[in-house]
From TrEMBL:
Highest taxon, organism lineage: Bacteria
Full protein name: Transcriptional regulator, LacI family
Domain HTH lacI-type positions: 18-72
Keyword Repressor (UniProt): yes
One Pfam family this sequence matches: LacI
Key words, A-Z: DNA-binding, Repressor, Transcription, Transcription regulation
GO molecular function, one term: transcription cis-regulatory region binding
């Protein structure tokens, strides 16, 4: 049996969950003062706050986030609504925004919205957990989606998404600027027959990347040798590679891809089927900079999404919304960066 030597000045901890009343008793303050000490934006004298925090640490107390949201109407709980995580960049973005929220004392909870999901049920769940702001990311924004969340009393932040029909704050990568960088690189590297592949149809990100690629080529005095109906998957890249191999026309000497998965699928199939070399026979540029892009077998030159910068700015915007009570409607654009590796 283990004996614990307890100081006489310390009140014995009650069995079960430690409450704000226990902390108040230990610190010699009211329960309301304890609540204010743990609530952002509330003023408590520094000496009193230190005494409360010391008592809370001794007792192992953690404030109830749901109760705080109910009493203060300022919820620190943030909902992150994701699409499917098959593309690694979505998982990287989710991890980065979750960490940024936690570093700013917010509590992230995640949900997914598939084609057959009940939006009303999801909204009800977010409201049940007193979610203050919903981040919509890694998914195509269907018409009216933002308005449905807003009508339910939920603030909305779009992360790397745009909805021209809704009034909402957004933090986005400048995908068109990134496409420009990719096109300029291939022309500067001597490519004169540059093919371009579109992304998934109906997505704002696809249109923005394609616009950047085409504008970049035009600015450098070129037109695309061919524009393919591509996609965002490894299989899409392999399919377009098969199309290239089946055509009798000249193989392009440069290829602007809609994302990294597509680029890797394209290179793998061309390498395996015809022994094509990168960058000697064709220079390829991806988009996103997923972890697989730097693998030795890929060494993919690509456009890096500013994931960490977007996550940091998103957390700052949510702080303005929740803590400062500000109505934020601005669109924040963050530039992309060219990452040069062996494929181009």
């Amino acid at each position: 049996m283990i004996l614990i030597n307890q100081k006489k000045s310390e009140a014995p901890m009650a069995e079960g969950r430690v409450t704000a009343d226990d902390v108040a008793q230990r610190a010699g303050v009211s329960r309301a003062t304890v609540s204010r000490a743990f609530s952002r934006g509330h003023t408590v004298q520094e000496q009193t706050r230190e005494r409360i925090l010391k008592a809370a640490q001794e007792l192992g107390y953690q404030p109830n986030a749901l109760a705080q949201a109910l009493t203060s109407r300022r919820s620190q709980i943030v909902g992150i609504l994701m699409g499917q995580l098959k593309n690694p960049i979505h998982a990287v973005l989710h991890q980065s925004i979750s960490m940024s929220l936690q570093q700013n004392n917010f509590i992230p909870i995640s949900g997914q919205l598939g084609a057959d999901e009940d939006l009303a049920k999801l909204i009800a769940t977010f409201r049940q957990y007193q979610v203050g702001v919903v981040i919509l990311t890694s998914m195509n924004i269907s018409p009216g989606l933002v308005q449905e969340f807003q009508a339910a009393g939920l603030q909305v932040l779009l992360l790397n998404r745009i909805d021209d029909d809704a009034v909402a704050a957004s933090v986005c990568a400048d995908l068109t600027q990134g496409g420009n960088l990719a096109a300029r690189l291939l022309v500067e590297r001597g490519c004169s027959r540059i093919a371009v592949a579109k992304g998934a149809p109906g997505h704002w990100t696809s249109a923005a990347r394609l616009a950047g690629h085409l504008a970049g080529l035009e600015r450098m005095g070129q037109a695309p040798a061919k524009v393919f109906d591509g996609g965002y998957t490894y299989q899409d890249g392999a399919r377009v590679a098969d199309t290239l191999l089946s055509e009798a026309s000249d193989m392009p000497d440069g290829f602007l891809c809609p994302n990294d998965l597509f680029a890797i699928g394209l290179m793998d199939r061309l390498r395996a089927a015809s022994g094509l070399r990168f960058p000697e026979d064709m220079k390829v540029v991806g988009f996103d900079d997923i972890p697989m892009a730097e693998w030795e077998s890929n060494q993919l030159t690509t456009i890096r999404l500013p994931v960490h910068a977007m996550a940091k700015r998103a957390a700052e915007v949510i702080t303005r919304m929740v803590v400062e009570g500000e109505k934020v409607e601005e669109k924040i654009w963050i530039p992309c960066r060219l990452i040069e590796r062996g494929s181009a």
